[in-house]
Amino acid sequence: MKLFIVQESFLDEDIAQVTEVIANGLAARQHNITLVTLTGKPIETTHYSPRVTSVFLGKARAAAAAAGVARLVEKEKPDVILSHGTASNIACLTAVKTRSSLKVPVAITLHSSVTISEKLALETQKSAATIAVPLIYREADRIICTLKSIEHVIDLCTQVPSEKSVVLYNPLVEMNVFETAAAPIEEEWFEAPGASKVVSVGSSSNHLAHHQLLQAMAISRYKVNLRAYLLGQGKDQEEMRVLASSLALDDIVTMPGVVAKPERFLRAANVYVSTSQHDSVSGELVRAMALGTPVVAIDSGAGAREVLRDVRNGWLVPFGEADKLSEAIIAAVKCDRSDDTLATRARDFSQERTIDTYEKLLVSMIAERVSDLD
Protein backbone atom coordinates (compact mmCIF):
# COMPACT_ATOMS: atom_id res chain seq x y z
CA MET A 1 0.00 0.00 0.00
CA LYS A 2 1.20 3.47 -0.92
CA LEU A 3 -0.35 5.83 1.62
CA PHE A 4 -0.45 9.60 2.08
CA ILE A 5 -0.93 10.71 5.69
CA VAL A 6 -1.77 14.42 5.81
CA GLN A 7 -1.68 16.78 8.79
CA GLU A 8 -1.84 20.55 9.06
CA SER A 9 1.38 21.12 11.04
CA PHE A 10 3.52 19.80 13.85
CA LEU A 11 2.19 22.54 16.14
CA ASP A 12 -0.79 20.40 17.11
CA GLU A 13 1.25 17.97 19.19
CA ASP A 14 -1.65 15.60 19.88
CA ILE A 15 -2.37 15.02 16.19
CA ALA A 16 1.34 14.96 15.29
CA GLN A 17 1.94 12.19 17.84
CA VAL A 18 -0.97 10.18 16.45
CA THR A 19 0.21 10.50 12.84
CA GLU A 20 3.74 9.51 13.86
CA VAL A 21 2.51 6.32 15.54
CA ILE A 22 0.29 5.41 12.58
CA ALA A 23 3.01 6.17 10.03
CA ASN A 24 5.67 4.13 11.82
CA GLY A 25 3.21 1.34 12.64
CA LEU A 26 2.09 0.89 9.04
CA ALA A 27 5.65 1.29 7.74
CA ALA A 28 6.68 -1.61 10.01
CA ARG A 29 4.18 -3.70 8.06
CA GLN A 30 5.99 -2.91 4.80
CA HIS A 31 3.69 -0.15 3.59
CA ASN A 32 5.19 2.97 1.98
CA ILE A 33 4.12 6.18 3.70
CA THR A 34 4.36 9.82 2.64
CA LEU A 35 3.75 12.18 5.56
CA VAL A 36 2.46 15.45 4.11
CA THR A 37 2.53 18.54 6.34
CA LEU A 38 0.66 21.55 5.01
CA THR A 39 1.84 24.49 7.13
CA GLY A 40 4.55 25.47 9.58
CA LYS A 41 8.17 24.44 9.58
CA PRO A 42 9.69 20.98 9.12
CA ILE A 43 11.11 19.17 12.14
CA GLU A 44 13.71 16.45 12.57
CA THR A 45 12.22 13.18 11.34
CA THR A 46 15.03 10.73 12.06
CA HIS A 47 12.73 8.93 14.51
CA TYR A 48 10.47 7.92 11.60
CA SER A 49 10.84 4.65 9.72
CA PRO A 50 12.95 4.72 6.52
CA ARG A 51 9.71 3.81 4.73
CA VAL A 52 8.23 7.18 5.76
CA THR A 53 8.98 10.08 3.42
CA SER A 54 8.27 13.58 4.70
CA VAL A 55 6.91 16.33 2.43
CA PHE A 56 6.46 19.91 3.72
CA LEU A 57 4.31 22.14 1.54
CA GLY A 58 5.16 25.23 3.59
CA LYS A 59 1.87 27.05 3.05
CA ALA A 60 0.89 29.96 5.27
CA ARG A 61 -2.59 28.51 5.68
CA ALA A 62 -4.00 25.02 5.19
CA ALA A 63 -6.79 26.53 3.08
CA ALA A 64 -4.17 27.44 0.47
CA ALA A 65 -2.73 23.92 0.31
CA ALA A 66 -5.35 22.17 -1.85
CA ALA A 67 -3.56 22.89 -5.14
CA GLY A 68 -0.25 21.67 -3.74
CA VAL A 69 -1.87 18.47 -2.44
CA ALA A 70 -3.52 17.89 -5.84
CA ARG A 71 -0.18 18.27 -7.66
CA LEU A 72 1.48 15.88 -5.22
CA VAL A 73 -1.28 13.32 -5.70
CA GLU A 74 -0.97 13.55 -9.48
CA LYS A 75 2.79 13.07 -9.24
CA GLU A 76 3.04 10.33 -6.60
CA LYS A 77 -0.25 8.48 -7.29
CA PRO A 78 -0.96 7.15 -3.79
CA ASP A 79 -3.37 4.23 -3.34
CA VAL A 80 -5.23 5.97 -0.52
CA ILE A 81 -5.11 9.17 1.55
CA LEU A 82 -5.56 9.46 5.33
CA SER A 83 -6.10 12.99 6.61
CA HIS A 84 -6.07 14.24 10.22
CA GLY A 85 -7.72 17.41 11.52
CA THR A 86 -10.35 19.76 10.13
CA ALA A 87 -8.08 21.97 8.00
CA SER A 88 -6.28 18.98 6.47
CA ASN A 89 -9.55 17.15 5.86
CA ILE A 90 -10.96 20.06 3.88
CA ALA A 91 -7.72 20.60 1.95
CA CYS A 92 -7.46 16.91 0.97
CA LEU A 93 -11.09 16.56 -0.04
CA THR A 94 -10.89 19.77 -2.08
CA ALA A 95 -7.67 18.58 -3.76
CA VAL A 96 -8.82 15.07 -4.63
CA LYS A 97 -12.51 15.54 -5.29
CA THR A 98 -12.37 18.83 -7.23
CA ARG A 99 -8.81 19.39 -8.50
CA SER A 100 -7.32 15.98 -9.34
CA SER A 101 -8.13 13.63 -12.19
CA LEU A 102 -7.04 10.71 -9.99
CA LYS A 103 -9.98 9.72 -7.80
CA VAL A 104 -7.95 8.44 -4.89
CA PRO A 105 -10.05 7.25 -1.92
CA VAL A 106 -9.83 9.60 1.07
CA ALA A 107 -10.37 8.80 4.74
CA ILE A 108 -10.68 11.87 6.96
CA THR A 109 -10.15 11.80 10.71
CA LEU A 110 -12.07 13.93 13.20
CA HIS A 111 -10.33 14.62 16.51
CA SER A 112 -12.82 17.12 17.88
CA SER A 113 -16.40 18.21 17.39
CA VAL A 114 -19.07 20.42 18.87
CA THR A 115 -21.16 19.06 21.72
CA ILE A 116 -24.87 18.94 20.94
CA SER A 117 -27.15 18.53 23.96
CA GLU A 118 -29.50 15.57 23.79
CA LYS A 119 -32.00 17.69 25.72
CA LEU A 120 -32.70 19.62 22.53
CA ALA A 121 -35.45 18.53 20.16
CA LEU A 122 -34.16 16.07 17.55
CA GLU A 123 -34.72 18.45 14.66
CA THR A 124 -32.77 21.16 16.52
CA GLN A 125 -29.93 18.69 17.09
CA LYS A 126 -29.88 17.84 13.38
CA SER A 127 -29.85 21.52 12.42
CA ALA A 128 -26.91 22.17 14.75
CA ALA A 129 -25.02 19.18 13.32
CA THR A 130 -25.63 20.38 9.75
CA ILE A 131 -24.09 23.72 10.65
CA ALA A 132 -21.14 22.15 12.52
CA VAL A 133 -20.10 19.58 9.90
CA PRO A 134 -18.47 20.96 6.71
CA LEU A 135 -20.56 20.14 3.64
CA ILE A 136 -17.53 18.74 1.79
CA TYR A 137 -17.27 15.91 4.33
CA ARG A 138 -19.98 14.11 2.36
CA GLU A 139 -17.32 13.58 -0.34
CA ALA A 140 -15.11 11.52 1.99
CA ASP A 141 -14.93 7.77 1.42
CA ARG A 142 -14.62 7.16 5.16
CA ILE A 143 -15.01 9.41 8.19
CA ILE A 144 -12.92 8.19 11.13
CA CYS A 145 -14.25 9.49 14.45
CA THR A 146 -11.84 9.28 17.38
CA LEU A 147 -14.74 9.36 19.86
CA LYS A 148 -18.27 8.00 19.77
CA SER A 149 -19.54 11.47 20.66
CA ILE A 150 -18.01 12.73 17.39
CA GLU A 151 -19.72 9.94 15.44
CA HIS A 152 -23.00 10.94 17.09
CA VAL A 153 -22.72 14.44 15.59
CA ILE A 154 -21.92 12.97 12.15
CA ASP A 155 -24.94 10.67 12.41
CA LEU A 156 -27.14 13.68 13.20
CA CYS A 157 -25.91 15.49 10.10
CA THR A 158 -28.31 14.60 7.29
CA GLN A 159 -25.93 15.86 4.59
CA VAL A 160 -23.35 13.11 5.33
CA PRO A 161 -24.25 9.41 4.86
CA SER A 162 -23.99 7.77 8.29
CA GLU A 163 -22.59 4.53 6.81
CA LYS A 164 -19.37 6.37 6.01
CA SER A 165 -18.47 6.95 9.67
CA VAL A 166 -16.51 4.60 11.90
CA VAL A 167 -15.17 4.97 15.45
CA LEU A 168 -11.45 4.36 15.77
CA TYR A 169 -9.75 5.45 18.99
CA ASN A 170 -6.34 7.08 18.88
CA PRO A 171 -3.27 4.85 19.49
CA LEU A 172 -2.29 6.12 22.95
CA VAL A 173 -1.03 3.00 24.76
CA GLU A 174 2.41 1.91 23.57
CA MET A 175 3.15 -1.73 22.88
CA ASN A 176 6.04 -1.63 25.40
CA VAL A 177 4.12 0.18 28.17
CA PHE A 178 4.48 -2.73 30.61
CA GLU A 179 8.21 -3.04 29.94
CA THR A 180 8.72 0.71 30.47
CA ALA A 181 6.57 0.71 33.61
CA ALA A 182 8.60 -2.15 35.09
CA ALA A 183 11.79 -0.06 35.19
CA PRO A 184 12.93 0.59 38.78
CA ILE A 185 12.06 3.79 40.62
CA GLU A 186 15.26 5.08 42.20
CA GLU A 187 14.20 8.68 42.84
CA GLU A 188 14.41 9.29 46.59
CA TRP A 189 11.63 11.88 46.52
CA PHE A 190 9.13 9.13 45.68
CA GLU A 191 9.83 7.23 48.91
CA ALA A 192 6.90 7.56 51.32
CA PRO A 193 6.51 4.42 53.46
CA GLY A 194 2.93 3.83 54.56
CA ALA A 195 1.44 6.60 52.43
CA SER A 196 -0.89 6.17 49.48
CA LYS A 197 0.56 7.84 46.39
CA VAL A 198 -1.45 10.21 44.19
CA VAL A 199 0.21 10.86 40.82
CA SER A 200 -0.69 13.40 38.13
CA VAL A 201 1.15 14.06 34.88
CA GLY A 202 0.79 17.16 32.76
CA SER A 203 1.74 20.75 32.13
CA SER A 204 1.04 23.11 34.99
CA SER A 205 -0.59 25.36 32.39
CA ASN A 206 -3.73 23.45 33.39
CA HIS A 207 -3.37 25.54 36.53
CA LEU A 208 -7.05 25.71 37.50
CA ALA A 209 -7.34 21.92 37.42
CA HIS A 210 -4.08 21.67 39.39
CA HIS A 211 -5.50 24.17 41.90
CA GLN A 212 -8.45 21.82 42.33
CA LEU A 213 -6.09 18.90 42.94
CA LEU A 214 -4.06 20.81 45.53
CA GLN A 215 -7.23 21.92 47.30
CA ALA A 216 -8.46 18.32 47.29
CA MET A 217 -5.17 17.22 48.87
CA ALA A 218 -5.64 19.84 51.61
CA ILE A 219 -9.07 18.38 52.32
CA SER A 220 -7.95 14.73 52.15
CA ARG A 221 -4.74 14.82 54.13
CA TYR A 222 -6.44 14.57 57.51
CA LYS A 223 -8.62 11.65 56.38
CA VAL A 224 -6.05 9.43 54.65
CA ASN A 225 -2.25 9.26 54.70
CA LEU A 226 -1.48 10.62 51.21
CA ARG A 227 1.45 11.90 49.17
CA ALA A 228 0.92 13.67 45.84
CA TYR A 229 3.38 13.88 42.95
CA LEU A 230 2.69 16.39 40.19
CA LEU A 231 4.94 15.40 37.29
CA GLY A 232 5.60 17.69 34.35
CA GLN A 233 6.67 21.25 33.73
CA GLY A 234 4.95 24.48 32.74
CA LYS A 235 5.08 28.24 32.99
CA ASP A 236 2.89 28.22 36.11
CA GLN A 237 5.12 25.86 38.08
CA GLU A 238 6.22 28.51 40.58
CA GLU A 239 2.61 29.62 41.09
CA MET A 240 1.74 26.01 41.88
CA ARG A 241 4.52 25.79 44.47
CA VAL A 242 3.32 28.99 46.13
CA LEU A 243 -0.25 27.68 46.28
CA ALA A 244 0.90 24.36 47.71
CA SER A 245 2.88 26.21 50.37
CA SER A 246 -0.08 28.47 51.23
CA LEU A 247 -2.21 25.35 51.74
CA ALA A 248 0.48 23.87 54.04
CA LEU A 249 1.13 21.01 51.62
CA ASP A 250 4.92 21.28 51.39
CA ASP A 251 5.34 18.04 53.30
CA ILE A 252 2.97 15.93 51.18
CA VAL A 253 3.15 17.43 47.63
CA THR A 254 6.21 17.04 45.39
CA MET A 255 6.68 18.71 42.00
CA PRO A 256 9.82 17.18 40.46
CA GLY A 257 9.24 18.53 36.95
CA VAL A 258 9.74 16.35 33.88
CA VAL A 259 10.77 12.77 34.66
CA ALA A 260 12.04 9.92 32.51
CA LYS A 261 9.67 7.02 31.91
CA PRO A 262 6.65 8.44 33.77
CA GLU A 263 4.92 5.07 33.29
CA ARG A 264 6.98 3.84 36.27
CA PHE A 265 5.10 6.24 38.51
CA LEU A 266 1.73 5.48 36.94
CA ARG A 267 2.26 1.82 37.83
CA ALA A 268 3.41 2.55 41.37
CA ALA A 269 0.62 5.04 42.12
CA ASN A 270 -2.38 4.15 44.27
CA VAL A 271 -4.43 6.54 42.17
CA TYR A 272 -3.80 8.57 39.03
CA VAL A 273 -5.52 11.96 38.72
CA SER A 274 -5.99 13.41 35.22
CA THR A 275 -6.00 17.21 35.14
CA SER A 276 -6.12 17.40 31.34
CA GLN A 277 -8.42 20.15 30.12
CA HIS A 278 -8.59 18.98 26.52
CA ASP A 279 -11.76 17.52 25.04
CA SER A 280 -9.73 14.62 23.66
CA VAL A 281 -8.56 11.57 25.59
CA SER A 282 -5.49 11.97 27.79
CA GLY A 283 -2.71 9.53 26.93
CA GLU A 284 -1.53 9.34 30.54
CA LEU A 285 -5.07 8.51 31.67
CA VAL A 286 -5.42 5.43 29.44
CA ARG A 287 -1.83 4.34 30.11
CA ALA A 288 -2.56 4.38 33.85
CA MET A 289 -5.69 2.35 33.15
CA ALA A 290 -3.68 -0.15 31.12
CA LEU A 291 -1.38 -0.61 34.10
CA GLY A 292 -4.36 -1.29 36.37
CA THR A 293 -4.05 1.91 38.41
CA PRO A 294 -7.37 3.39 39.65
CA VAL A 295 -8.02 6.72 37.94
CA VAL A 296 -9.84 9.95 38.69
CA ALA A 297 -10.44 12.51 35.93
CA ILE A 298 -11.53 16.09 36.30
CA ASP A 299 -14.36 16.46 33.79
CA SER A 300 -12.97 18.26 30.75
CA GLY A 301 -15.40 17.15 28.07
CA ALA A 302 -16.38 14.23 25.90
CA GLY A 303 -13.07 12.33 26.02
CA ALA A 304 -12.85 11.64 29.74
CA ARG A 305 -16.59 10.98 29.98
CA GLU A 306 -16.48 8.39 27.22
CA VAL A 307 -13.39 6.59 28.49
CA LEU A 308 -14.70 6.23 32.04
CA ARG A 309 -18.29 5.35 31.19
CA ASP A 310 -19.21 1.96 32.67
CA VAL A 311 -15.69 1.46 34.06
CA ARG A 312 -15.16 0.38 37.66
CA ASN A 313 -12.24 1.96 39.54
CA GLY A 314 -12.64 5.08 37.43
CA TRP A 315 -14.17 8.31 38.73
CA LEU A 316 -15.22 11.47 36.88
CA VAL A 317 -15.58 14.59 39.01
CA PRO A 318 -16.95 18.05 38.17
CA PHE A 319 -14.47 20.79 37.34
CA GLY A 320 -13.91 23.21 40.21
CA GLU A 321 -15.28 21.02 43.01
CA ALA A 322 -12.35 20.14 45.25
CA ASP A 323 -14.53 18.32 47.79
CA LYS A 324 -15.80 15.93 45.08
CA LEU A 325 -12.25 15.31 43.91
CA SER A 326 -11.18 14.58 47.48
CA GLU A 327 -13.99 12.03 47.86
CA ALA A 328 -13.02 10.34 44.58
CA ILE A 329 -9.32 10.15 45.52
CA ILE A 330 -10.14 8.55 48.87
CA ALA A 331 -12.52 6.07 47.21
CA ALA A 332 -9.88 5.20 44.60
CA VAL A 333 -7.21 4.64 47.24
CA LYS A 334 -9.51 2.20 49.05
CA CYS A 335 -10.90 0.35 46.00
CA ASP A 336 -10.28 -3.26 45.04
CA ARG A 337 -7.49 -3.19 42.45
CA SER A 338 -8.09 -6.78 41.36
CA ASP A 339 -10.85 -5.58 39.01
CA ASP A 340 -9.61 -5.66 35.40
CA THR A 341 -12.18 -3.45 33.63
CA LEU A 342 -9.69 -0.56 33.52
CA ALA A 343 -7.14 -2.58 31.57
CA THR A 344 -9.85 -4.00 29.32
CA ARG A 345 -11.07 -0.51 28.43
CA ALA A 346 -7.51 0.71 27.83
CA ARG A 347 -7.00 -1.96 25.16
CA ASP A 348 -9.29 0.06 22.89
CA PHE A 349 -6.45 2.61 22.75
CA SER A 350 -3.57 0.19 22.23
CA GLN A 351 -1.24 0.98 19.35
CA GLU A 352 -1.26 -2.58 18.03
CA ARG A 353 -5.06 -2.78 17.89
CA THR A 354 -5.35 0.67 16.31
CA ILE A 355 -2.75 -0.05 13.63
CA ASP A 356 -4.53 -3.33 12.83
CA THR A 357 -7.82 -1.48 12.36
CA TYR A 358 -6.29 1.31 10.27
CA GLU A 359 -4.58 -1.22 8.00
CA LYS A 360 -7.76 -3.23 7.44
CA LEU A 361 -9.81 -0.08 6.80
CA LEU A 362 -7.37 1.45 4.32
CA VAL A 363 -6.80 -1.82 2.45
CA SER A 364 -10.58 -2.29 2.17
CA MET A 365 -10.91 1.23 0.71
CA ILE A 366 -8.31 0.39 -1.94
CA ALA A 367 -10.14 -2.84 -2.76
CA GLU A 368 -13.43 -0.94 -3.12
CA ARG A 369 -11.77 1.51 -5.47
CA VAL A 370 -10.37 -1.29 -7.64
CA SER A 371 -13.80 -2.94 -7.70
CA ASP A 372 -15.44 0.33 -8.80
CA LEU A 373 -12.91 0.72 -11.63
CA ASP A 374 -13.62 -2.83 -12.81
From TrEMBL:
InterPro entries: Glyco_trans_1 (IPR001296), Glyco_trans_4-like_N (IPR028098)
One matching Pfam family: Glycos_transf_1
Listed GO MF terms: glycosyltransferase activity
Domain of life of the native organism: Bacteria
EC number of this enzyme: 2.4.1.291
Glycosyltransferase subfamily 4-like N-terminal domain location: 17-171
Keyword check for Phosphoprotein: no
Coiled-coil stretches noted in the UniProt entry, renumbered to this chain: none
Keyword annotations of the record: Glycosyltransferase, Transferase
Key word Transferase present: yes
SUPFAM superfamilies per record: UDP-Glycosyltransferase/glycogen phosphorylase
Record domain Glycosyl transferase family: where: 193-347
Enzyme class: transferase
Protein name from the UniProt record: N-acetylgalactosamine-N, N'-diacetylbacillosaminyl-diphospho-undecaprenol 4-alpha-N-acetylgalactosaminyltransferase
Lineage: Bacteria, Pseudomonadati, Pseudomonadota, Alphaproteobacteria, Hyphomicrobiales
Gene that this polypeptide is encoded by: pglJ
